[in-house]
Design a protein that fits this description.
It is a single chain. This protein is α/β, with parallel strands linked by helices. The N terminus is likely disordered. The strands form two sheets. The protein has an eight-stranded mixed sheet, sandwiched between helices. Strands 1-3-2 form a three-stranded mixed sheet. The longest helix has 27 residues. Helix 8 packs antiparallel against helix 15. It has one domain: Amidase signature (AS) domain (Amidase signature (AS) enzymes, Alpha-Beta Complex), CATH 3.90.1300. It is globular, with a radius of gyration of 21 Å. Helix content is 35%, strand content 12%.
Length: 513
């Protein structure tokens, strides 16, 4: 099977299939696999639900210190993480494919690297050599990656021990993690609610204190949304700051990084991953502390669309603005000068083109026609939406390509932009189910994920910080965004927020569904 050249497909009117001209895949690692189907290791699932209580674990940096001083070995850390994963899985269903035996082998002889010997999970959209990649889809059952994706190479060089793949929605195309291939992943703070998406499995595993950090990716909010839902720190890096794993087409919206328990883990992983990258951006390095610089923060709590901000989220983001004032930053009330309907229309069309591209890949790999047998109704609905609007694609691409300069012009008035991460506290499972009524799910997704995509289109650095919680113990994300290249500025601010209002001790309760 050959790779699809999505940039060429977008620019060619001759690329007509059952779904019409294919588009750039909006998923985070959408290269079609070049391998035969073989038997994959099944996810380890306990036959009966285990009793699991989340307990504090060392973050990744502390685990490295334990390895260095001899108070732990990679094998002991990995065995403990595997035990936690097996116990938590029946509750949160966040493991797509387990690689526990291979993880134990790797931990017995850990490789050198900046995170050598620390256990983690890889998102089920990223190829990790020798492991199954489902792409959250029934169509790719049995696909075993024959090589690492580019970002995976960086993490393997860093020496992490992969316990397997965390769950993702089909091709990362929706803001909840309820794929038909593995079933719904649940939020550790309330099992009736979503963990967000598309890095929902990664966030659920870290929130449950199975591992201190996990690989995540973000093509429209997929790091920041699950971080907000699960009470974690989630930095979306600037475009070009860290390796990518494929050409995403004329508008490069997707990046890879992690969801983490602590800011310092995110900063250290960032530094470890950027080492060999050739980029026009200056090196961020390992940011290790808060800056004394006081910032001008543009405060824009209202969605750019007609999405509805729930009262708890509004109250939370207003508390965050007040905290920033108390810390000595200047907070400026701001209304984003953007036609939200126009932006959302262009972005959604580009996103739908990705669904069409993935549908073609799924059909080619599975050998089956594009149909509900191999693809979810949500993916098919997006693909059909693209099919009906192919003639608008050129204009949408031009609009999105021009948006980066528009976005960056906002920062003539302030240093950092503050908004909610999402519009509501984590919704109930089912409200964004991929097999629900397409128009209803579409409306729910657009209302929920109303804030994050401008930063993907502009290539900007953006982060969700879990400094607010509601009365029921559900996290409320506060999103701070900068310009492209402002990753270090945001990490420095995050350290200050983390010290002012720590979140590490807010352990999940696994409230029953």
């Amino acid at each position: 099977m050959t790779h699809l050249d999505r940039r060429r497909l977008l620019q060619s009117s001759a690329a007509i299939t059952a779904l019409g001209a294919l588009g750039a895949c909006a998923g985070e690692n959408a290269d079609a696999p070049d391998t035969d189907t073989v038997e994959a290791e099944a996810p380890p699932i306990e036959p009966e639900p285990a009793t699991y209580t989340a307990s504090a674990i060392p973050d990744g940096v502390e685990q490295l210190e334990m390895l260095a001083n001899g108070s732990a070995t990679s094998l002991s850390l990995t065995e403990a993480a595997i035990a936690r994963s097996k116990a938590a899985h029946p509750l949160i269903n966040a493991v797509a494919t387990g690689s526990y035996d291979k993880a134990l082998e790797a931990a017995a002889s850990p490789t050198d690297g900046s995170f050598g010997g620390v256990p983690t999970f890889i998102k089920d959209l990223l190829d990790w050599e020798g492991d199954q990649t489902l792409y959250g889809s029934r169509a790719f059952k049995g696909y075993i990656a024959q090589s690492d994706g580019e970002f995976a190479k960086a993490w393997r060089k860093a020496g992490v021990v992969s316990l397997g793949k965390s769950t993702s929605p089909e091709m990362g195309l929706i803001s909840s993690t309820e794929p038909l291939v593995t079933g719904a992943t649940r939020n550790p703070y309330d099992l009736s609610r979503i963990p967000g998406g598309s890095s929902g499995g990664a966030a659920a595993l870290v929130a449950a204190r199975v591992v201190p950090f996990a690989h995540a990716s973000d093509g429209g909010g997929s790091i920041r949304i699950p971080a907000a839902c699960c009470g974690l720190f989630g930095l979306k890096p600037s475009r070009g700051a860290l390796p990518i794993s494929r050409d995403s087409g004329p508008v490069d919206i997707s990046v890879n990084h992690a969801v983490t328990l602590t800011v310092r883990d995110s900063a250290a992983l960032f530094a470890a991953t950027e080492v060999d990258l050739q980029t026009d951006l200056p090196r961020t390095g390992n940011i290790t502390e808060a800056s004394t610089r006081r910032l001008r923060i543009g405060f824009a709590p209202d969605p750019i669309t007609d999405a509805t901000l729930d009262s708890e989220t509004r109250s939370g983001i207003e508390r965050t603005a007040e905290l920033c004032r108390e810390l000595g930053h200047e907070v400026i009330d701001y209304t984003l000068p953007i036609d939200g309907a126009e932006f959302t229309d262009a972005f959604l069309l580009y996103w739908a083109a990705g669904a069409a591209a993935f549908a073609q890949q799924a059909s080619a790999f599975s050998g089956k026609p594009i149909s509900p047998e191999i693809l979810e109704p949500w993916t098919l609905g997006l693909a059909q939406e693209f099919l009906g609007r192919q003639g608008d694609m050129e204009g949408a691409i031009a609009y999105l390509q021009a948006f980066e300069s528009v976005y960056h012009s906002w920062f003539d008035q302030f240093d950092v932009l503050l908004t909610p991460t999402v519009s509501t506290v984590p919704p109930k499972i089912g409200s964004q189910a991929p097999d629900g009524d397409y128009q209803t799910v579409r409306a729910n997704v657009l209302n929920f994920a109303a804030f994050t995509s401008p930063m993907n289109v502009s290539g900007a650095a953006s982060m969700s910080v879990p400094i607010q919680w509601n009365a029921d113990g559900l996290p409320i994300g506060s999103m701070f965004s900068g310009k492209r290249g402002d990753d270090g500025l945001l990490l420095s601010l995050a350290y200050e927020l983390e010290a002012a209002q720590p979140w590490i001790d807010r352990l999940p309760t696994f409230k029953p569904a």
